[in-house]
């Protein structure tokens, strides 16, 4: 996995902006997201090391896609070289997500590059209602989908599933990579 770190300044500014937009106090947002107030305070000040789980929980509590918290404004031409995208890692499994493209105004999708290694599966809570995930495996093999009925995918395989309920990602081979498109309905 790449050693790129999460975009802390972008996350801090995005959390402050979205919390103000929602009219929530630090205490109320922390409560709704199920994170410690001190953790949220650190993240808003640009400190800490946020996990995928923490950022997803904050996004759900704020009613915004994950991308709105981690993706800075993009120029019209964007190139992200392999291994240089900022990664946000899971705290419970060998899973990392790099935001490649956020949902622009009027569109309803985000594009991620996943890097997953064998070990504990990454279990995700449901995202915003109506969210659909589209996955294409580009290297290795992985188990993905609804927690109760995941599918095994090999290189080139595609699957889509409702992601507003519990779902999982698990590498079945070392150095597994996949493209994930999150469709926000």
Q: How would you describe this protein?
A:
The protein is an alpha+beta fold and 185 residues long. The protein has 2 domains: 8-70, 434 Repressor (Amino-terminal Domain); 87-183, Jelly Rolls, CATH 2.60.120. 25% of the residues lie in helices and 31% in strands. The chain contains 5 helices and 10 strands, in the order αααααββββββββββ. The protein has helices at residues 8-22, 26-33, 37-44, 52-62, 67-70; strands at residues 87-89, 95-101, 109-116, 122-124, 132-139, 141-146, 151-154, 158-162, 167-171, 176-183. The strands form 2 sheets. The protein has a 6-stranded antiparallel sheet, with no helix packed on it. Strand 2 (95-101) and strand 3 form a beta hairpin. It is globular and about 45 Å long. The two termini are 31 Å apart. The relative contact order is 0.17. The model has no long low-confidence stretch (mean pLDDT 86).
């Amino acid at each position: 996995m790449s050693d790129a770190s999460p975009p802390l300044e972008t996350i801090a500014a995005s959390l402050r902006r979205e919390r103000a937009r929602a009219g929530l106090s630090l205490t109320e947002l922390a409560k709704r997201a199920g994170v410690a107030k001190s953790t949220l305070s650190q993240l808003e000040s640009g400190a800490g090391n946020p996990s995928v789980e923490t950022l997803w929980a904050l996004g759900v509590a704020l009613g915004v896609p994950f991308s709105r918290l981690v993706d800075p404004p993009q120029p019209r031409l964007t190139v992200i070289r392999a291994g240089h995208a900022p990664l946000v890692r899971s705290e419970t499994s060998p899973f990392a997500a790099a935001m490649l493209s956020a949902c622009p105004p009027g569109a309803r999708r985000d594009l991620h590059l996943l890097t997953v290694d064998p070990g504990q599966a990454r279990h995700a809570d449901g995202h915003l209602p109506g969210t659909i995930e589209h996955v294409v495996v580009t290297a290795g093999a992985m188990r993905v989908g609804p927690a109760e009925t995941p599918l095994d995918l090999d290189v080139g395989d595609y699957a889509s599933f409702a992601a507003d309920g519990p779902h999982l990602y698990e590498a079945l081979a070392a150095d597994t990579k996949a493209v994930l498109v999150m469709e926000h309905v």
